[in-house]
Amino acid sequence: MSTPSAQQEGMQFIIAFVLAIALMAADHYGKILGNVRSALLTTLTPIERAATFPQQVYNLVTTDFTSINALERENQQLKTEILLLKAKQLQLTNLELQVERLERLLGTTGKITNQNVQIATVIVYSKNPLSQFLTLNKGALDQVKKQQTVIDSHGIMGQIIKTTPTTSRVLLITDPDHQIPVRIQRTGQRGILNGTGHDNVQLNFIPVNSEVKVGDIIESSGLGGVFPAGYPVAQIVQIDTLGDNPYFKISATPVAKLNQSHKVLIISQEEQDNWQNDFDFDFDFDLKANPEKNNPIGKGE
Amino acid sequence: MTDKLINVRSNQVRGIILLTYLVALIIDSMVLLNSNLGFIPPITLMIVLYWSSHFLDKTFLVSAFLLGVMVDALYQTTLGAHALLYIIILFIMMRQRLQFRTYPTWQQAFIIGIYLMIYQVLNTVFFSPVLDNGQFVFYWSMPAAAILIWPSISALLNRTALNNS
Lengths: 301, 165
What we know:
The structure holds two protein chains of two kinds. By secondary structure, chain A is α+β, with helices and mostly antiparallel strands. Chain A has helices at 6-29, 34-64, 68-106, 270-279, and strands at residues 117-127, 132-136, 149-151, 156-163, 168-172, 179-184, 190-195, 201-204, 217-220, 232-241, 248-254, 263-267. In chain A, strand 10 and strand 11 form a beta hairpin. Chain B is 75% helix and 0% strand. The interface between A and B is large, with 52 and 44 residues.
């Protein structure tokens, strides 16, 4: 049996070492490996599905044991919610018309864009010390694209960072590499919301002379064109002052049920395209692989 | 059992080796999906270490590299980062694999524990993982879990390789 000599082993190691470093550099500083990663994810999709199989079986079994009474209660609750939402939608349509009339009177060019949404199911939820992401059951074949915003019924969950033909990955707003431009709903004060890696987020760049209080809702500001404006993102839970620091240290919890939501909405790029046209600005962020390279309104892949 | 495996070439069990990589990737994915399983060591790395220590006709560096890249894709980390960690740990093991394969299983397990502690330290330096209280304990108990798991992996792979060679 011929065995590699120590020299051959050393040479192989050096080659593999250099290749790994080159790969890291290419992934970190360039965008050329985006397709490689997508191809890898596509290859790994069956493995991910196999890994979720025990959980699916467990869910199936536990669902089968759900009592009919509980299902009836849930059905009744959903019907009530639909009624309430329909009523709200009627009001919203009326408001849209009013805003449009007022804008016409003022001669402004702004308009409310009707966003297209796709419903997707969360097939993988991962919260590990290295990254926090979801995998959805909609991919490139369903016209899902990078940087699309994902929301649940409560607020923004994150954005699409990678797609395969049949699935897509969503980087959650709690991921340490994630940043989103926001404003405080009550005052309009703008800031940047960063993920911390735990189940909460941190609001940065709010000056100490700002009016801000615990319980304030933080919503997306729409600046940067990646996230649509006006969606709730988090609620402030703690405000600290750090010595002479000109900014508050503000902790917040996401309003979206990041680890509970099963059905989510993917918001289409339509409005984001409008933003890009309005400002003639290039927002081609490459996410997460090179967070330092991106400006604060992007996010790392 | 190890003595018998000495007479088997890696080419004779190539299919089994690939199958074990696949199963290891599935197990690693399961760990990724459940934050309560953070103490489970990277099974892909342990499998590569096992095959490399028992088949001297190959270095398994290519396997380690490719598996590392796949783990990077799974964990959404920079491509090549886990690959680099895998080949470093594998190279450390390769320097001693002639002695390693002669050790009894319990001794191998402790050495694997040391390798995985090095892996975890490098992992911390590379990725600065965010650990809350519960995860901190899980994270650093991983090498100890590897010590406990190694005898089972070793016995299983040994038997599988011998039965299919």
